Amino acid sequence: xxxxxxxxxxxxxxxxxxxxxxxxxxxxxxxxxxxxxxxxxxxxxxxxxxxxxxxxxxxxxxxxxxxxxxxxxxxxxxxxxxxxxxxxxxxxxxxxxxxxxxxxxxxxxxxxxxxxxxxxxxxxxxxxxxxxxxxxxxxxxxxxxxxxxxxxxxxxxxxxxxxxxxxxxxxxxxxxxxxxxxxxxxxxxxxxxxxxxxxxxxxxxxxxxxxxxxxxxxxxxxxxxxxxxxxxxxxxxxxxxxxxxxxxxxxxxxxxxxxxxxxxxxxxxxxxxxxxxxxxxxxxxxxxxxxxxxxxxxxxxxxxxxxxxxxxxxxxxxxxxxxxxxxxxxxxxxxxxxxxxxxxxxxxxxx
Length: 351
Hints:
Organism: Skeletonema marinoi
GO molecular function: ribosomal large subunit binding; ubiquitin protein ligase activity; zinc ion binding
Oligomer: single chain
Catalytic activity: S-ubiquitinyl-[E2 ubiquitin-conjugating enzyme]-L-cysteine + [acceptor protein]-L-lysine = [E2 ubiquitin-conjugating enzyme]-L-cysteine + N(6)-ubiquitinyl-[acceptor protein]-L-lysine
Subunit structure: Component of the ribosome quality control complex (RQC).
Strand order of the largest sheet: 1-2
Order of helices and strands: HHHHHHHEEHHHHHHHHH
Mean pLDDT: 78
Family: Belongs to the LTN1 family.
C-alpha cells in the first residue's frame, strides 16, 4: 500500500545507514516506485470503470452452456412459427425466471446458475431489440416483455446494469437503452393491450425506486429511440435500423482503399441483397406502420408525463425543435392518413 511506503518511522536495520549514496538512491527508487504505483492504480481504476460498463451487454449469441436454454433460444430466435416462440418464451418465464416467493423455493429455477441466467438475459435483450419486440404477432411481443421483467428478481445487478446503467452529467451509459425506449413506446402506443400491459410492467420495474437516474434513462432512451425510428422513410429502412449488423458486416474490416473500391462494394452489396417475396413485404409494411404510429403516440405521452422534456436545456431530448425536424415534416405530408393524424396530435402536445 502507498501508506506503508510513506511510513519512514520504522527502523529497518543498520544497513541503510552504511552509505549516504545508498540511502539517496534507495529513496529515489522508492519515490519512483510510488509514482509508478499511483499511475498504475489510476490506470487500473479507469480500466475497471470501462470493464464495469462493458460487463453486461446485449449478446447476439447465448454464451452459456445449459442444454435446455440452448434449445429454448433456438426456438425463440430461429423459428418463424409464432406459437413455437410464444411457448418457448413462456417456458423461459416460468422455469428459468419464475416469480420468487416462499412457494417457489426449491423449484427447478434454482438449478440454473446465476451465470447462465445472466447469459440468458443478455441474449434475450439482443433478440428483443432485433426481432421479438417487432414481431407482428402480439403474443410474441408480450411474451418477450414478460420474460425481461421476470428476470429482474433473479439477476437484479445485471438487470439494472443493462437497463439503468451509469448516469453521467449530460448523458447516461445504458447498454440496453433501445429496449427501454421500445418499452415506453409500447406501453403507450402498442395497439395490443397485452403488449402495452407487459411493457408498462417492465417500465414500472425500471422506475420502481423513483430515482433521478432511472427516470432520466427512460426519457433519454425514449427520445433517442424515437428520433432514430422516425428517420425511417420506408419499411426497408426500418429493417436497417432494427438489425444493422448485416449492413455493418459488409463494411467491417475495410481498409483505407475502400474509397477506390466504393463502386465495387456497392455493386456487390446490391448483388448480395436478400430477395424479399410479397409475403415478407407485407409483413415489413405491417411492422413499419405499427412501429411508426406507436412511436408518434408514445412520444406524445412522454411529453405529457414529463413536461420538462420539451425544455431547451435538455441536450439529449431537444423536443422543442422536434416539430420542425425533417422527420415530422415528412410525416405530416405522408400519403398515409393515419401517419398524418398521429403526427398532428404529437405536434399539438409539444407545441
